[in-house]
Amino acid sequence: MEFFLCVLGMVMIVEGLPYFAFPEKMKFWVQKILEMPDSALRKFGFVLMLIGLWMIYMGKG
């Protein structure tokens, strides 16, 4: 559980950094994301999950 909380904390730091550092640009990108079709967002999310799984696999090996 300690490792999970550490990883979750790191994810929150990485996710929050752009909003803290570049709020104007993040508003622009959020608007662009809202305009994207659901299918494109679904494909993008799937690719990100595959990359994440690959990174975990490489890190464990």
How would you spell out the order of helices and strands? HHH
Overall number of strands: 0
Radius of gyration: 15 Å
Helical coverage, percent range: over 70%
Biggest beta-sheet profile: none
Rough outline: flat
Number of domains: 1
Average predicted confidence as pLDDT:
94
- Give the end-to-end Cα distance, rounded to a whole number of Å: 21 Å
Supply the helix-strand structural class: mainly alpha
In the predicted model, the low-confidence regions spanning at least 5 consecutive residues are none
Strand fraction equals under 5%
How many helices? 3
* Oligomer status: single chain
List its salient traits.
61 residues, mainly alpha
Give structural notes.
This protein has one domain. Helix content is 92%, strand content 0%.
Could you provide a short overview of the structure?
The longest helix has 23 residues, at 38-60.
Q: What's the structural blueprint in terms of helices and strands?
A:
Blueprint: H1 2-21, H2 23-35, H3 38-60
Helix pairs in contact: 1-2
